[in-house]
Amino acid sequence: MDDMISWMQEGGQVGIFDATNSSRARRNMLMKMAEGKCKIIFLETICNDERIIERNIRLKVQQSPDYAEEPDFEAGMRDFKTRLANYEKVYEPVEEGSYIKMIDMASGHGGQLQVNNISGYLPGRIVFFLVNTHLTPRPILLTRHGESRDNVRGRIGGDTVLSSEAGQLYSKKLANFVEKRLKSERAASIWTSTLQRTILTARPIVGFPKIQWRALDEINAGVCDGMTYEEIKKNMPEEYESRKKDKLRYRYPRGESYLDVIQRLEPVIIELERQRAPVVVISHQAVLRALYAYFADRPLKEIPHIEVPLHTIIEIQMGVSGVQEKRYKLMD
Ligand code: F6P
């Protein structure tokens, strides 16, 4: 807690103090520590559904590092239940300060949200995020579109179709892959940008709804749209150098920066968090770098340099113990 408070004082915006804090005395102590330094919002999740509790305990014992050394599954279950019973003995419901209480919301059907003494933009976004997030395991498949004509020419941006060989071949290979991988997943969906190259990449995939998102469009290169990197270097050397110096913050004249892209992806991220069925996201290099960084928990400054090659699927498995990743290279 001390560590977190000093990080907040150095400019941190949101810190998560992940602990049980089930007694009033304990919460009072935390509020005292934070007094005049940062704002505290308590988050209490209440679940009265025995089946969900049982499922969560099972997942916890199976997947949590706490039980990695416990070879006997039943012993792990007993241990966790004892732990729960001990917490129950000292538990006092949250009734003080600012808090968000999520009651029976885990199933995704109904439930209740109590919000007390919360105001301001960021706390409001936190409430919105929490209402939409859950732990139901499901995969998210991220891929760039198949090679486009502009990719072949080395031109950035634009809205060209797929190259007639590699690009179109990838769209077929991707359709095969998705069909096999999501065979039994009726509720899955395919998300693309509004640019032709992603829509055409999705075209051979059948049997799933397709949704176009403007927020998934590639970074807007503004006055540089349609140019090659060499042309930018030659004709606009200052722009080229500024981007090289700070690729994250650099904004193309009349276009976007990576920070702009990250910001416009917020609704996409919330919607991905909310989905309980698999989603295939067919988008573009800069956008996928930002999305991937969110799920893989990569630092902001790395985002513009993350490798997201063409013709490769990044499968992100969302679950109780965080996020796992697999890459499938369908073509060179
Ligand atoms: O070259 C393909 C592309 O998707 C361009 O349209 C886009 O400007 C670029 O990648 C983004 O990558 P970087 O930020 O490395 O220039």
Automatic annotation (TrEMBL):
Keywords noted in UniProt: ATP-binding, Nucleotide-binding
Stored SMART domains: PGAM
A single GO molecular function term of this UniProt record: 6-phosphofructo-2-kinase activity
Protein name per its UniProtKB record: 6-phosphofructo-2-kinase/fructose-2, 6-bisphosphatase isoform X2
A Pfam family reported for this protein in Swiss-Prot or TrEMBL: 6PF2K
All residue ranges annotated as the 6-phosphofructo-2-kinase domain in the record: 1-137
Alphabetical list of CDD domains matching this protein: HP_PGM_like (cd07067)
Cross-referenced Gene3D superfamilies: P-loop containing nucleotide triphosphate hydrolases, Phosphoglycerate mutase-like
Any one GO BP annotation for this protein: fructose 2,6-bisphosphate metabolic process
Xref: InterPro entries: 6Pfruct_kin (IPR003094), 6Phosfructo_kin (IPR013079), His_Pase_superF_clade-1 (IPR013078), His_PPase_superfam (IPR029033), P-loop_NTPase (IPR027417), PG/BPGM_mutase_AS (IPR001345)
Organism whose genome encodes this protein: Nelumbo nucifera
